[in-house]
Specification:
- It is a single chain.
- This protein is of the alpha/beta class and 297 residues long.
- The chain has 14 helices and nine strands.
- The protein has two domains: 3-166, NAD(P)-binding Rossmann-like Domain (Rossmann fold), CATH 3.40.50; 171-293, N-(1-d-carboxylethyl)-l-norvaline Dehydrogenase, domain 2 (Orthogonal Bundle).
- It has helices at 13-22, 34-42, 51-55, 68-75, 81-84, 99-112, 124-130, 141-151, 168-196, 201-209, 216-220, 243-260, 265-282, 291-295, and strands spanning 4-7, 27-30, 46-47, 60-63, 90-93, 115-118, 121-122, 133-138, 155-164.
- Strands 3-2-1-4-5-6 form a six-stranded parallel β-sheet. It has a three-stranded mixed β-sheet with strand order 7-8-9.
- Helix 1 runs parallel beside helix 7 (124-130), helix 9 crosses helix 12 and helix 9 (168-196) packs across helix 13.
- Residues 7-13, 30-33, 36, 51, 64-66, 70, 73-74, 95-96, 121, 124-125, 241, 245, 248 line the site of nicotinamide-adenine-dinucleotide.
Length: 297
């Protein structure tokens, strides 16, 4: 089984690395946070003193970092992973970042003889813990075939997609989350209007799920409190998926729109709404709490 180096052990990376250990991989970890390192070494990982040290002798490196600048810093330059990993090794970046940075790292990787893929995820912390993440991969066909068995240790084998060349995974992730924001806001508006007119939110949800307004937010993530058990709206909007992350992803979708020349008016409107919600102190709450902005008018 490939030996894996895992860098970035936060809310997502921590449980992902743990699942790789459970799947039987030898995993060496690095994070700037000592408690995150301690958690993983307790779970059976080897600890390293730097990202470079973790990558020594690894067949594959996986990174799960906050943003593009962290990914560029870890991979690029003389002290970066690409210049120091074993030739032919695999590098998978599962972070959500801009597709331009993913393309630049992909290009530098090709020059360094490393097989790089951007492999952003969908599913959030619960899916990371359950090992049921979806992966959207950008890179060569050969890298995808090598990456797939490793990604299956952290995700649902049916939901591991090859989106295209380097950067394509990040484009898929950004446009998907923009669509999520748009149908969440639309579902919140529809429910708010129906309830204001005296309809029961649970009955209205069933009607729309059986009709042409059906969408993921209504199916599995109903934003109206107490319509559905075990979702953030029935748990005081504890995340789930934070407003802060939705604002980040809508910003990335805006970059995709700009660089592709597409006029994403609904995406921009969603970004404005979520940014206002974030500014009002809701950044750490679940993104379905946007219903409160619509209800209170
Ligand atoms: P997080 O902030 O919990 O974790 C990031 C980790 O990276 C931290 O432990 C931090 O110490 C570490 N780190 C930062 N710079 C580092 C460096 N130079 N070297 C080593 N470690 C470093 O974030 P998260 O929620 O785990 O998210 C990670 C990525 O996954 C982000 O790009 C995010 O957008 C994406 N994502 C998150 C979710 C979610 O629900 N949390 C869902 C899908 C995608």
């Amino acid at each position: 089984m490939p030996r894996i180096a895992f860098v970035g052990l936060g809310n997502m990376g921590g449980p992902m690395a743990r699942n790789l250990i459970t799947a039987g991989h030898s995993v060496t970890v690095f994070d700037l946070s000592a408690p995150a390192m301690a958690d993983l070494t307790a779970a059976g990982a080897q600890s390293a003193s730097s990202a470079l040290a973790a990558a020594q002798g690894a067949d594959a490196v996986i990174t799960m970092l906050p943003a593009g600048k962290h990914v560029a810093q870890v991979y690029m330059g003389e002290d970066g992973l690409l210049a120091n990993m074993a030739k032919g090794a695999l590098a998978l970046d599962a972070s959500t970042i801009d597709s331009e940075t993913a393309q630049q790292v992909g290009l530098a990787a090709t020059e360094a003889g490393i097989a790089f893929m951007d492999t952003p995820v969908s599913g959030g912390v619960a899916a990371a813990a359950a090992g049921t993440l979806a992966f959207m991969c950008g890179g060569s066909e050969d890298a995808f075939l090598r990456a797939k068995p490793i990604l299956e240790g952290m995700g649902n084998a049916e939901k591991i997609f090859h989106a295209g060349p380097a950067g394509a995974g990040q484009v898929a992730k950004a446009v998907n989350n923009m669509l999520l924001a748009v149908h969440m806001i639309g579902s919140c508006e529809a429910l708010s209007m129906g309830v204001a007119k005296g309809l029961d939110p649970a009955v209205l949800s069933e009607i729309m799920k059986a009709s042409s307004g059906n969408n993921w937010s209504l199916q599995v993530y109903n934003p109206w409190p107490e319509v559905m058990p075990n979702v953030p709206s029935s748990n005081d909007y504890q995340p789930g998926f934070m407003v802060d992350l939705m604002v980040k992803d809508l910003g990335l979708a805006g970059q995709v729109a700009q660089s592709s020349g597409v006029n994403n008016q609904l995406g921009q409107l969603a970004l404005a709404l979520y940014s206002a919600h974030q500014s009002d102190g809701n950044g750490a709450r679940d993104f379905s709490s946007i219903v409160e902005r619509i209800k209170v008018r």
